[in-house]
Write a structure and sequence with these properties.
The chain has helices spanning 15-39, 44-53, 56-60, 65-70, 74-95, 101-130, 134-170, 173-198, 214-226, 231-240, 243-257, 269-298, 300-312, 316-324, 329-358, 363-403, 406-414. The longest helix is centred in the C-terminal third of the chain and has 41 residues, at 363-403. The protein has one domain (15-201, 221-414): MFS general substrate transporter like domains (Growth Hormone, Chain: A, Up-down Bundle), CATH 1.20.1250. The protein starts with 14 loop residues before the first helix and ends in a 12-residue tail after the last helix. The chain is mostly helical. α1 (15-39) packs antiparallel against α2, α11 crosses α16 and α12 (269-298) packs across α15.
Length: 426
């Protein structure tokens, strides 16, 4: 089969669907599992601690990211990991009626997380090959974020809503979630087949292995990353940009689902799927698109401070919700929409910053290292969030989460951003 350049097929034919498929296993591992375990009676402490450990494959993926660079094509790795993830999604569905469902489902989710992390390495590299110019990358960063979040709507919104309705009709959470994971597996398999057929084959998508120099290439990949100018500030920024959000995210679902007697808002699973997984994520998508437009217009250096404030200040709505305890579903949905819009808006800046840091030789592996530090910044705070919430209660916990956003402002003041990076030229 002859190779065709990425320009021979519009990026709109594959950027949205690859972004969507990049999110599906992540949504299942980090979001669907949280609500599922809550429905199945797992405590907040165990839920937060063990699901946070599922971040570990994303933390460690830089250790095997050079393998994706050195062997095979990014296209091949992308499609293969989609196939593995679809099988893992199906396997989760079979574990939920077994006596040791918690341990067994976590083991399968670990496999899925590993496949998803590898898929991220390959697809992120594929984006940079298929969208070679900085302007294209900036123009599509909002699209990537938007369709990534659309997968969250389909998962945390539509599939969680479906699970809630199945629980109502059957009064059997295990069966309901088995159906949900089975449907997700079928959707992901369809995406895998589609991408095998339509993904273009960029000229630069090839193995970079050199005979007799594999270990040297592997070491040089990491050495060149840690030799980047200002590496200490870069790592600090990657770890701390979402410190508050990392804690808030793990406790958002338990807070919305827990009964009011325990300090939660007492939403049903279906209501949660509607207000947080649908309305909230639509706002997240719109925020991501708006963030990409702003960066393309003004450049990352000029836009990052307003985007930082717009991302973190709305976290205060959780303090309001935990204090006022509104009963109106419209008020709750409106508050969540404000917070999620801000998060999506600010996260677009974070994504483009990682692209800027990774730019150059070994860009696929360097981007994977960036996202590994990003995942570590989510994993460690998330692990203790359940314990902190138990000790502080929801109201004080959310106050603490807002205070935890302050290091992001400090690190933003320290990092160096290339003038004009991401700005549309001409």
């Amino acid at each position: 089969m002859s190779r065709s350049s990425p320009q021979q097929r519009s990026p709109w034919a594959w950027v949205p669907s690859v972004s969507f498929s990049q999110a599906v296993p992540y949504v299942a591992v980090m979001l669907l599992s949280t609500v599922m375990y809550k429905n199945l009676g797992v405590s907040n402490d165990d839920l937060a601690f063990y699901t946070s450990w599922l971040y570990l494959p994303w933390v460690l993926k830089p250790l095997w990211s050079p393998v994706v660079d050195l062997f095979g094509t990014k296209r091949h790795w992308t499609v293969l990991m989609q196939l593995v993830s679809s099988a893992a999604l199906a396997a989760v569905a079979f574990t939920l009626h077994l006596p040791q469902f918690f341990a067994l489902s976590l083991a399968v989710l670990w496999l899925m997380a590993f496949a998803s992390a590898t898929h991220d390495i390959a697809s992120d590299g594929y984006y940079m090959l298929g969208l070679p110019s900085q302007h294209q990358q900036a123009a599509f960063v909002g699209v990537r974020s938007a369709f990534y979040k659309l997968a969250m709507i389909a998962g945390q919104g539509g599939l969680v809503y479906l699970a809630g309705e199945l629980i109502k009709s059957s009064n059997d959470p295990a069966t309901a979630w088995s159906v949900v994971f089975g449907i997700t597996a079928a959707i992901f398999l369809a995406l895998c087949v589609y991408h095998q057929l339509v993904l273009p084959r960029p000229q630069g998508d090839h193995s970079t292995a050199k005979t007799g120099a594999l270990w040297a290439d592997f070491v040089e990949t990491f050495r060149s990353f840690f030799r980047k100018q200002g590496i200490g500030s870069i790592i600090g920024f990657l770890l701390l940009y979402r410190l508050g959000e990392a804690q808030l995210l793990k406790m958002a679902a338990p807070f919305l689902l827990d009964p009011r007697a325990q300090g939660g808002l007492g939403l049903t699973t279906s209501e949660f799927g509607l207000v947080y997984g649908t309305i909230g994520v639509v706002a997240l998508v719109l925020g991501g698109i708006a963030g990409g437009i702003v960066i393309s217009r003004f450049g990352l250096k000029q836009a990052i401070w307003p985007m930082l404030f717009i991302m973190h200040v709305p976290d205060l709505v959780f303090v309001y919700l935990a204090t006022a305890m509104p009963t109106s579903i419209e008020v709750i949905a409106g508050c969540l929409a404000v917070e999620q819009f801000g998060y999506g808006f600010g996260f677009a800046a974070f994504m483009l910053y990682m692209i800027m840091v990774a730019d150059g030789e070994h860009k696929t592996a360097h981007y994977a290292i960036c996202t590994g530090f990003m995942a570590l910044g989510m994993m460690l705070p998330g692990m203790i969030s359940g314990k902190l919430q138990h000790l502080l209660g929801y109201q004080n916990f959310f106050i603490w989460a807002c205070i935890s956003t302050l290091p992001a402002f400090f690190m933003t003041a320290l990092v160096d951003i290339k003038p004009g990076f991401g700005k549309k030229q001409g």
